[in-house]
Structures are given as structure tokens and as C-alpha cells.
Design brief:
Layout lengths: L3 E5 L4 H17 L2 E8 L11 H28 L4 E7 L5 H11 L4 E6 L4 H7 L2 H8 L4 E5 L7
Parallel strand pairs: 1-2, 1-4, 2-3, 4-5
């Protein structure tokens, strides 16, 4: 059914929920996983007082991203699922566009990602990478809502 599944990770509970779903799906179908973490500089670019401060922040972001990817590979390994990963640093475009491009570049046949499930004003202000991926990807996308975001 699926051969290669791309799973974006950002350290959030929603991304972790997407990863859990992807691991289960990969285990059931025999697919491999590609974990991707995109370091987005945008939230930090306006606050940097010096190049040295920026480099310290960038190093911390890299270590954090590498840790997320290492942890995800461990989860996949513990479930008997083959996995690779990629850390993408400071792309020029939007994170969602980078995810879509990486799925194509890696020849993935599915993207599995979590979503926060925001609506209204908070969605308008914060946007949604999951929504943009869903609308722009030519690769099928499975969007997994975090348990706390579900309506009862």
C-alpha cells in the first residue's frame, strides 16, 4: 500500500501524535519512514542583536532538531520500522512548502502530520502548516488531530 511515509516533526504534542500514527501505519503496511525537521528562522530574525547571538540560537535550534529526529528514529526502531531523517535548516520559503517539496524529493507516497485543530481568530493569526500542506501537496496527506483538540 505505502512504501515511504514522510513525517514532519516540530517538537509539539500534535507532531508527536502524527508520528505515532505514522509508525503504526508503517508497521502495518511495511513502509519506511522519513522524519523531517525544518528549522524556521522567521520567528527569531527580528530579535537578534548580533551575529554571535544568532549563531548561539542557531546552534541550539540545530541540537534541538537533531534530538527530535534521533528520538523519532528510536521510536521507529523500537517498533521494527525502518526510518531515515533529514534536518532542513533555515529555508527561504514557508515550512509547509518545504515539507511538500521534501516529500517529492524523497519519493514519498504519503505525508502524515499532526494538526492543532484551531479555528477562527487563532487560526487566522497563526495559520496552519498542515492545512497548507493538505492544499498544496500532490502526495496524499493524512492529517492527525491531537487528542486534546478533538471535540467531544
Amino acid at each position: 500500500m505505502y512504501r515511504k511515509i514522510l513525517v514532519p516533526l516540530d517538537g509539539s504534542a500534535t507532531a508527536a501524535r502524527g508520528m505515532e500514527e505514522a509508525v503504526g501505519l508503517a508497521r502495518a503496511t511495511g513502509a519506511s519512514l522519513v522524519f523531517v525537521h525544518v528549522i524556521d528562522a522567521f520567528p527569531f530574525t527580528f530579535d537578534m542583536a548580533s551575529p554571535q547571538a544568532w549563531e548561539l540560537l542557531a546552534d541550539g535550534l540545530r541540537r534541538h532538531g537533531q534530538g527530535l529526529l534521533e528520538q523519532a528514529r528510536g521510536v521507529a526502531r523500537d517498533h521494527g520500522v525502518a526510518a531515515s531523517d533529514k534536518l532542513i535548516e533555515f529555508p527561504a520559503g514557508r515550512v509547509a512548502d518545504v515539507i511538500v517539496a521534501e516529500a517529492k524529493a524523497q519519493d514519498c507516497d504519503l505525508i502524515v502530520m499532526g494538526t492543532h485543530g484551531r479555528r477562527g481568530f487563532s487560526h487566522a493569526m497563526l495559520g496552519s502548516d498542515a492545512e497548507r500542506v493538505l492544499h498544496t501537496s500532490t502526495v496524499p496527506v493524512l492529517v492527525v488531530r491531537h487528542a486534546e483538540a478533538r471535540r467531544t
